[in-house]
Design a protein that fits this description.
There is one protein chain. The chain is of the alpha+beta class and about 450 residues long. It is built from nine helices and 23 strands. Strands 5, 6, 7, 11 and 14 form a five-stranded mixed β-sheet that branches. Helix 4 crosses helix 7, helix 5 crosses helix 6 and helix 5 packs antiparallel against helix 7. Its main location: membrane. Belongs to the inward rectifier-type potassium channel (TC 1.A.2.1) family. GO terms for molecular function: inward rectifier potassium channel activity. Keywords: Ion channel, Ion transport, Membrane, Potassium, Potassium transport, Transmembrane, Transmembrane helix, Transport, Voltage-gated channel.
């Protein structure tokens, strides 16, 4: 037979929660009438019923008028940060030219790649033209007795063609240098060296940009939402991470930081205060072979300790998750990021199961179609702090108030107590510990007499 609970609503202190009931106070609600007929009902069953009754009462929720905090980190991991008013910014970036070239967008890389070769061709074409012009090869072009510096170069166009052939060692054989001009031999040697250097730099730049571990983060997945649910009897904040590739991330570890506004004791306001959340992982390390649910237990050290379901969406914070590890195929370190705003944290949900065993081929299959899917869970709307206080209150109220009334008869001891739940305890009689257990039906307003 199901127990019957009669518990009044309480008035919440939150300004956004307006309860209809006029009765308030946690102690008063726990000291009110409650009767039940089954002696095997546990404390957890009663307290959960109380919590669900309390928050399922008649109330009106008024959404917060505050706007949500704009993201610092987008869902794809890009930063929403712009640097301004930096002195000597160009000089600083040019001092580390290679990193600057790797970080810029592809269209600028392709432009620099193309212009690097074209400019070098034009510069050396002009040098070849000057050599031929100073040696008067243009005026004597076509004379059979004339020995030019560069054969078959008669204008700037042919000088440009010879520059391209020399720098890339094409070697058509129609235009070539002669031993009549030592300066032409020196320029040919210089252009050959410059051509190799430019080509090596441009090739290295493109290779470095293509092999950046940043692109490896594109196949690392974070769940769209974080959830708050109960696990092992405690409220926990969770989100899911996964890797779509068969090549794994070695030494993967994850950190979660809460960005919020903080007021110091001196009155200083820190607008972007970072607080790292403690995760239920050894040193934050992950064995990321299949999708893993990252868990943060909401305890007294957690910033979510006094945040209830009603308060959650009125908070101003951003959770930033950073996953780092070594790419197995390249040995380079990669980093993936994402963030969660208060409206992206689902209270009373848990993640759906992904892994199934296939009997046909004996493999474990991961269904990424349900990677972001969540299912509802019956979770009290209280904060973890309120739940702890309620549990402490119920525990203290369930203690027996034992009143000893010793009769003149030494063999009889009358014990009067008021109980709210099945009791199991110890009393001392005649200097010896005797164990007793009450399994009788009782009521909170009736005294039970035990004669020993």
């Amino acid at each position: 037979m199901e127990p019957n609970y009669t518990i009044p609503n309480s008035t919440a202190t939150n300004s956004r929660l307006e309860l209809v009931s006029n009765n308030d106070g946690l102690d008063q609600s726990f000291q009110s009438q409650k009767s039940y007929n089954s002696s095997n009902d546990s404390f957890m069953e009663y307290s959960q019923q109380y919590l669900m009754t309390k928050h399922s009462g008649n109330f009106r929720y008024r959404p917060s008028s505050k706007r949500s905090r704009r993201r610092l980190v987008y869902k794809n991991g890009e930063m929403n940060i712009a640097h301004a008013n930096i002195k000597k910014r160009r000089q600083r970036f040019l001092a580390d030219i290679f990193t600057t070239l790797v970080d810029i967008k592809w269209r600028w890389n392709l432009l620099i790649f193309t212009m690097g070769f074209i400019v070098s061709w034009l510069i050396f074409a002009f040098i070849w033209w000057l050599i031929c012009f100073s040696h008067q090869d243009f005026q004597n072009f076509g004379r059979p007795d004339w020995k030019p510096c560069v054969a078959n170069v008669k204008d700037f166009t042919t000088a440009l063609l010879f520059s391209i052939e020399t720098q890339h060692t094409i070697g058509y054989g129609f235009r070539f240098t002669t031993p009549n001009c030592p300066e032409a031999i020196l320029v040919m040697m210089l252009q050959s060296c410059c051509g190799v250097i430019i080509q090596a730099l441009m090739t290295g730049l493109v290779f470095a940009k293509l092999s950046r571990p940043k692109k490896r983060a594109e196949t690392l997945m974070f769940s769209k939402n974080a959830v708050i649910c109960k696990r092992n009897g405690e409220l926990s904040l969770m989100f899911r991470v996964g890797d779509m590739r068969k090549s794994h991330i070695v030494e993967a570890h994850i950190r979660v930081m809460m960005i919020t506004k903080k007021l110091t004791k001196e009155g200083e306001i820190i607008p972007l205060y970072q607080e790292e959340l403690e995760l239920d992982l050894p040193d934050g390390k992950l064995f990321l072979v299949w999708p893993i649910i990252v868990e943060h237990k909401i305890d007294a050290n957690s910033p979510f300790w006094d945040i209830s379901a009603i308060d959650l969406h009125s908070q101003q914070f951003e959770l930033i998750a950073v996953l780092e590890g070594i790419v197995e195929s390249t040995g380079m370190t990669t980093q993936a990021r994402t963030s969660y705003l208060p409206e992206e944290v689902l209270w009373g949900h848990r993640f759906e199961r992904l892994v199934t065993y296939q009997r046909e081929n004996g493999e474990y299959q991961i269904n990424y179609a349900r990677f972001h899917a969540t299912v509802p869970q019956d979770v009290p709307q209280h904060s973890a702090k309120e739940l702890a206080e309620l549990a402490s209150t119920v525990s203290s109220n369930d203690k027996l108030n034992v009143h000893h009334e010793i009769d003149e008869d030494e063999d009889t001891e009358t014990i009067s107590y008021r109980s709210h739940s099945p009791v199991e305890g110890r009393i001392m009689a005649n200097g010896e510990a005797q164990t007793y257990e009450s399994n009788h039906k009782h009521n909170s307003d009736r005294d039970v007499i035990i004669n020993m």
